[in-house]
Amino acid sequence: METHFNNLKVCRLTDGKGFDVELTNIGARIMRLRVDGVDVVQGFERPEDYLPEAHLSDFGAVVGRYANRICGGRVVIGGEVVQLPQNNGPNCLHGGPRGWQYSVYQIVEADDRHVEMVLRSPDGDNGFPGNVDVRVRYTLADDRALRIDYRAVSDKPTVINMTNHSYFNLDGTTGCTVCPSAEGHTLRIDADRYMPVDETMIPLRDAASVDGSPFDFREAKPIGRDIECGHPQLVVGSGYDQNFILNHPGLDVPSAVLQGQRSGIVMELYTTAPGLQLYTGNFLDGVAGRGGTQYPRRSAVCLEAQQYPDSPNRSWPESTGRLNPGEMFESTTIFKFKKSR
């Protein structure tokens, strides 16, 4: 089902059995995601609320051209230094101040189970080279799974990193004055290593083992258990905001499992991406979302399946973040929901 707001649109996907998703073409965003009537993502009421003149927000968006951070906003492409916007301290974050989360996509296919959106990002968009054609497809499966397929091609060498930036609270984000804390959610991440960061949130040279650290989520634990333990990495990010190197990227086994504290809703994340950024809503500041509900600090969890941050400036073979003419960027992430009780 498609509803029009001038050039902004809303599409609703549903399985007819209590699992439904509302999407808008401003930033190819997830606006609502309901499991048996419980809306598990934060966001605003109307698509026009996501326009940059209304709110600067990544709620539910497909972010790009390069999700996460690029050090100093500088990258060498085709032998030339490209200077990108520095919108996060000295670094470029999520494609710059007007990244794809604020672009209006064209909806080319839509029915009750899928929607496909396309975007042409022109050469020089936020300083990035190359005309890039982007395709994002959302599909609702019978097993309460929402699949996101990303595709992109470019006519010049460029860099790319696409992810969905939904803010999840599996205990529900509506029907209350203040959204409850997500620190009681339990989380498991299939990762033996993570990327420590410097004071500007750029990864250091070497990855670190999660052994004996607050970053060990190999066994499920409450997100808030160690978040105030004083670990330097948790201090610099005011909570979790680091990339995890996934042990088994792919669609066969979940790379992460998140469970609500009270609802019993469980979300499994499957992805072909090599990394997963865990962000615990450390800078939510009480913004008013749907129904006037306040979203305070740490009232949501972001699990951003992605290429590694600053990949184009590094030598990580599993994550270069680069896209050349004749190549296709492809990535798939699945959010699958069930009840534990």
Concise description?
This protein is an all-beta fold and 341 residues long. The chain has 1 helix and 29 strands.
Helix share bin: under 10%
Categorize the overall geometry. globular
Summarize the biggest pleated sheet: 9 strands, antiparallel
Oligomer: single chain
Second CATH tier, the architecture: Distorted Sandwich
Distance between the termini: 31 Å
What name does the CATH topology carry?
A: Beta-galactosidase, Chain A, domain 5
* Gyration radius, rounded: 19 Å
Which stretches are low in confidence, meaning pLDDT under 50 for 5 or more residues running? none
The total count of helices amounts to 1
| Strand line-up of the largest beta sheet | 11-12-13-14-29-23-22-17-20
Compute the number of structural domains: 1
CATH class: Mainly Beta
Mean pLDDT, rounded to whole units?
96
Q: Strand content of the residues, in percent?
A: 35-45%
Helices and strands, in order, run as EEEEEEEEEEEEEEEEEEEEHEEEEEEEEE
Structural class: mainly beta
By DSSP, the count of extended strands is 29
